[in-house]
Amino acid sequence: MKKRIFITGASSGIGRATAELLVRQGHEVWGTSRDPARLPVDARFHPIALDLADSKSARESFQRALAEAGHFDVVINNAGSGHFDPGSTITEEIVREQFQVLVFAQIEIFQAALAAMRERGRGLIINVTSMAARLPVPYMSAYNAAKAAMASFTMTVQLELRASSIRVVDVQPADICTSFNEAVVQPATTDRALAQVWKQIDANLQAAPPPTLVARRLSLLIAQKNPPARVTVGGLFQAGVAPFIFRLLPQGVRVWGLKRYYRL
Ligand SMILES: NC(=O)c1ccc[n+]([C@@H]2O[C@H](COP(=O)([O-])OP(=O)(O)OC[C@H]3O[C@@H](n4cnc5c(N)ncnc54)[C@H](OP(=O)(O)O)[C@@H]3O)[C@@H](O)[C@H]2O)c1
Fold first, then answer.
1. CB 3.0 to 4.6 Å from 98: which of 72, 82, 129, 142, for a disulfide?
2. DSSP tag of 83
3. Which ligand 1 atom is at minimum distance from the Cα of 9?
4. 166-200 pLDDT, tens per residue?
């Protein structure tokens, strides 16, 4: 069945690969960017300007898209970006900015989508969080914390909606080879240890699977009658082996393992 789908961050990476796949499959897609000129051009793709840094703008952009579409069968909260900074010195301003983009604006869109879906009694909302919610990336404390907050928010709503036919899914990608790292804001420092960790983080991303892997998984979720509550997607080690082993380990061993992984 052809669906009406809203997705944030459709100009690049996971969002773009997903929007392009969904359009090819015959769905109508409303996709966002801060700069709509960066969005795909297609008769079934509807560009929307949206900036998560401004809650009012995010809410209004979503409502404009909803009015244009009439309804959404699926809403995908995907857009996001990160900060690389030591947790010991990160400023309150950066933490607030990360939570604005990755939590507050996403909750606004989530609530608006849910309210509209409740009127029809059905729908699917997918929050793209991150494996970083469970396996944190060093020097990305605000990003990790915001993703963990959004994952927890998503699970809480799943408890509250359990008798509803509206489905909510937490999609947690591991490293995926996109332009994500190019947009990561970095501190002006010559600290060699920090530079070494960033090199490792970037090498992991460059060696990771392409965003089409996540796009295919999202497309499968959209087609499912009863999608799972949480999905991890990525390479076998990061998205399969590591989370499975981590579940069984005490916290001290988890920290030791992550330090080894990032060569800290
Ligand atoms: N790549 C990974 O390894 C990975 C792993 C786990 C989770 N994720 C998550 O997956 C999602 C997509 O990331 P990606 O890897 O596809 O990165 P990407 O290629 O950098 O794409 C990010 C998208 O988000 C949009 N965006 C960024 N900041 C925004 C803002 N303030 N307001 C509105 N839109 C904004 C960008 O649009 P414009 O710049 O055009 O506005 C772009 O379309 C993010 O939530 C990310 O945290 C990624």
1. 142
2. B
3. 43
4. 999 999 999 999 999 999 988 887 788 899 999 99
pLDDT at residue 193 in the model: 86
Q: Kindly list the protein residues whose Cβ atom lies closer than 6 A to any atom of ligand 1.
A: 8-9, 11-15, 33-35, 38, 50-53, 78-81, 101, 128, 130, 173, 175-176, 178-180, 183, 205, 211
Number of domains making up the chain: 1
User: Domain holding 85: CATH number?
Assistant: 3.40.50.720
Q: Which two tokens stand for residue 223?
A: 């087609």
Which residue CA neighbors atom 44 of ligand 1 most closely? 80
C-alpha of 73 from chain center: 19
Helices (H), 121-250: 141-160, 192-206, 212-223, 236, 242-248
Which atom of ligand 1 is closest in space to residue 16's alpha carbon? 43
What residues make up the domain containing 181?
A: 4-261
